[in-house]
Amino acid sequence: MATNGLMASSSVFLHRPRIAFASRTNQTVGKYGKGRVSFMGIGTRRLPVVLSMTAMADSGEEAVKSVLPGNGISIMVNGCSGKMGKAVIKAADSAGVNIVPISFGSAGEDGQRVEVCGKEITVHGPTEREKVISSVFEKHPELIVVDYTIPSAVNDNAELYSKVGVPFVMGTTGGDRNKLYETVEEAKIYAVISPQMGKQVVAFLAAMEIMAEQFPGAFSGYSLDVMESHQASKLDASGTAKAVISCFQELGVSYDMDQIQLIRDPKQQVEMVGVPEEHISGHAFHLYHLTSPDETVSFEFQHNVCGRSIYAEGTVDAVLFLAKKIRLKADQRIYNMIDVLREGNMR
Question: Where in this chain does the record put each Dihydrodipicolinate reductase N-terminal domain (predicted)?
């Protein structure tokens, strides 16, 4: 999810499917392995999934109150000129979070001024980034950086945040994710890193992980068709779809990631998928269709998102969560959206 042209959303809704899949015979079998694409962690590391949503202990109540709706928190949104960056700024402003009028962007954006919510934000290019962010962090000691830049900037940005020691929320996808986690873990700083910031979508993914862990092989022998539709600017397959598919693989389904049917043509998106025309430039529709070996049983899972607000709101919740952890002097480590959901203090 998370480039400057990233999709995002204002509503998540489930409804009866409106799309006819292309024949499986027309799909190319890819070279990807069938290894798990885990949403909960990287490599073999797995984070525990707990169904109970337990609230903070009494000792943390004051800290909870102090960060809601955002007292004393300042955020610096890198990638503020992009659609996701602007959406996060709007959501943060509504939550009472202070927006630092400085952002990082590309070399071509250096010196530009972006106006969002009546605030003028100055964009700095790649030069002197360490000097700039160190100065901002000194002026705003409760600063949390939000990153919605581009995949190629993920690792360099994470190294910079780690070097300065500033807490951050990484919403940008892509880059070398193993290196990303290693960098932040070695620095021992506060961070929320998640490939999916939509809280409800994250909850669905967590449920899929639980099902895969509890009932491995339950769909053994079933065939799977997967369609995902995003705006034309998203060239790669959805990371969310890959995470769900990995769960189906543990449930016994044989499927290669290259078989995902990508819909990027606006006409098909409107006529075949049912995407509202006003959301062609920003949506995330997913459909998973399972069929039994004898074709007498079928299951369908669908989650559709229009707009960007679901991701922006989730990002602000991650910021408030991280601020609370910092004030409670909790472990300085990498958290994810499962941790944010489990906290039980969603707005």
Answer: 73-197
Q: Are 75 and 93 spatial neighbours (Cβ–Cβ below 8 Å)?
A: no
Element containing residue 157 per DSSP (H, E): helix 154-164
**234 is an active site residue:** yes
Provide the whole-model pTM. 0.75
Do the Cβ atoms of 76 and 143 come closer than 8 Å? yes
204 within 8 A of 181, measured Cβ to Cβ:
no
Residue-wise pLDDT tens for the chain (347 aa)?
444 333 333 333 333 344 444 433 333 333 333 333 344 443 333 333 333 333 444 445 555 555 555 668 999 999 999 999 999 999 999 999 999 999 999 999 999 999 998 999 999 999 889 999 999 999 999 999 999 999 899 999 999 999 999 999 999 988 999 999 999 999 999 999 998 899 999 999 999 999 999 999 999 999 999 999 999 988 788 889 999 999 999 999 999 999 999 999 999 999 999 999 999 999 999 999 999 999 999 999 999 999 999 999 999 999 999 999 999 999 999 999 999 998 875 56
Active site residue: 124, 140, 199, 230, which one?
230
User: Pick from 185, 189, 288: which is nearest to 242 by CA?
Assistant: 288
Rounded Cα–Cα distance for residues 140 and 50 (Å): 35
> In Å, how far from its chain's centre is CA 283?
14
User: Contact at 8 Å (CB) between 24 and 223?
Assistant: yes
Q: What is the DSSP letter of 135?
A: H
- Amino acid identity for residue 312 in this structure: A
Select which of 83, 86, 199, 234 is catalytic.
234
Q: How many CB atoms lie within 10 A of CB 177?
A: 17
CA distance 85 to 98: 15
